[in-house]
Specification:
- By secondary structure, the chain is an alpha/beta fold.
- It is built from seven helices and twelve strands.
- It is globular.
C-alpha cells in the first residue's frame, strides 16, 4: 500500500541518492543495494513518508536509473525522482530546483541512513520551525580521537567533549539553503557546511543511534540486526 504524504505539511525532503557506494564493495549504486531484501532507498523513503510533517520528497537518482527508481518507489510513496549529479552537492541542487511552492522547511537526507526513525525527522523539522535557519542532528563522540601526521605518528589526543558526529536529515529554512547553493564556489559533502560559509549559525539537536550511515559491508550487517530487533 502506498503511503500518502501530508498535503498540509510544511516540509520537503531532498534525498541525494546518486552515489556509487564504492566502500560497500562491488555492486550497483549505494542507494539501490539491498537491506533485508529491499533497496536502502526504499527503507529510507518509507520512513520519510511516515513523518507527519513531510509534504514532498524529491529523490536525485543515478542518471541511468531514474526510471528504475520511479518504479521502485511508486508503491512506497508519491515521490518525485530527478537525475542526480556527479557529486552530492549537484544532486541536492537538482532536487531543490524542483521542490514545488509551499514547503518552507527543507531537509536533506542520506539514503544510506535507511533506518532513521520518523521522530528524528520531526525533531529536525521542529527546530527549523522554531526559528533556527539550519539544524543538524548529532551524537556525542565516544571513541578517543587522536591526531596523526602523514606517517601515522600520533601527535596528541583531541578533546572529544567538544566533538559531535553529524547525521541526517539536516534541516534548513528553504531560502537559506537555496542561497547557500547559489553562492557555492566549490564542492562540500555537507549542506550545513555550505550554509555556515554564508555566516548562518547551525543548531545541533540530539541524533539517533538508529540513524547509522550504511557505508561498509559491516554496516549492512549491523542494519540487518537492527531491523530484526524492530528498528
Amino acid at each position: 500500500m502506498t503511503a500518502q504524504l501530508n498535503p498540509r505539511g510544511d516540509v520537503a525532503v531532498l534525498v541525494p541518492a546518486a552515489g556509487a557506494g564504492v566502500r560497500l564493495g562491488p555492486g550497483g549504486p549505494k542507494a539501490l543495494r539491498t537491506l533485508a531484501g529491499e533497496p536502502l532507498l526504499v527503507h529510507a523513503v518509507r520512513r520519510l513518508a511516515a513523518a507527519d510533517s513531510v509534504h514532498t520528497v524529491v529523490v536525485a537518482a543515478p542518471a541511468a536509473e531514474v526510471d528504475l527508481v520511479r518504479r521502485l518507489l511508486a508503491p512506497v510513496a508519491p515521490v518525485t525522482v530527478v537525475p542526480g549529479g556527479a557529486e552530492r552537492q549537484a544532486s541536492v541542487a537538482a532536487a531543490l530546483a524542483v521542490v514545488p511552492a509551499g514547503p518552507e522547511i527543507v531537509l536533506v537526507h542520506d539514503a544510506a541512513r535507511a533506518l532513521t526513525p520518523p521522530d528524528l525527522i520531526e525533531s529536525v523539522a521542529a527546530a527549523v520551525r522554531a526559528g533556527h535557519d539550519a539544524v543538524i542532528p548529532v551524537l556525542p563522540v565516544v571513541d578517543t580521537i587522536r591526531r596523526v601526521d602523514a606517517g601515522e605518528q600520533a601527535l596528541g589526543t583531541v578533546d572529544r567533549s567538544t566533538l559531535r558526529s553529524v547525521q541526517t536529515p539536516q534541516g534548513f529554512r528553504r531560502s537559506v539553503l537555496a542561497a547557500a547553493h547559489a553562492a557555492a564556489a566549490d564542492s562540500l559533502t555537507d549542506d550545513a557546511g555550505l550554509v555556515e560559509r554564508q555566516g548562518v549559525p547551525v543548531r545541533c539537536v540530539p541524533g539517533s543511534d538508529y540513524a547509522i550511515k550504511i557505508t561498509r559491508p559491516f554496516d549492512l550487517t549491523l542494519a540487518e540486526h537492527l531491523l530484526a530487533a524492530g528498528a
